[in-house]
Design brief:
It is built from 5 helices and 6 strands. It is of the alpha+beta class. It has one domain (about 1-155). It is globular.
Length: about 160
């Protein structure tokens, strides 16, 4: 099943914007994912915003699963050294309809840009099942963001 999605590559600006606009993630996972659930989609549709970890993610020593994002965002915003380099934490952010609502890519992108304030690096339709299957087969050793961007590039869609 194809779903509308928008994807941003991880940058310090992205992490700081997430922190400023969305605050603390609703949930954080041991695999490095950070998740926000917000009703800022077209027509108030609930969106899932997921900061995807790098392949082979390892939580920085001395930082709890639920503190990685806040510690990193604070360090980036204040010019301090983060718990780990950004390229060792997250590959990028994805947004999509949280509960299977049928959205078209362009209204999703418009709502996402209004909420986050940044234009995505890619948008269109993606197959989450194939991405998740590849990630599980590789035991987390593949980049979810690279897989999503590859699908977006093949489909010819853009933000």
């Amino acid at each position: 099943m194809l779903v509308a999605a928008a994807v941003w590559r991880a940058t310090p600006e992205l992490v700081m914007q997430l922190d400023e606009r969305f605050g603390e993630p609703l949930d954080a996972y041991v695999n490095g994912s950070q998740v926000w659930m917000r009703d800022d989609g077209p027509g108030g549709v609930s969106l899932e915003w997921r900061l995807h970890p790098v392949a082979r993610y390892e939580r920085p020593a001395g930082v709890g699963t639920y503190e990685v994002f806040s510690e990193t965002a604070l360090a980036l915003a204040t010019g301090r050294v983060p718990p780990a380099p950004l390229e060792e934490l997250w590959d990028g952010l994805e947004v999509f309809a949280a509960y299977g609502d049928d959205l078209e890519p362009q209204p999703l992108v418009a709502a996402a840009v209004a909420a986050l304030g940044l234009t995505p690096d890619g948008a269109g339709l993606v197959d989450h099942d194939s991405v998740g299957d590849a990630w599980e087969r590789a035991a987390g050793a593949v980049s979810v963001v690279d897989a999503l961007m590859s699908q977006l590039l093949r489909s010819g869609d853009s933000p």
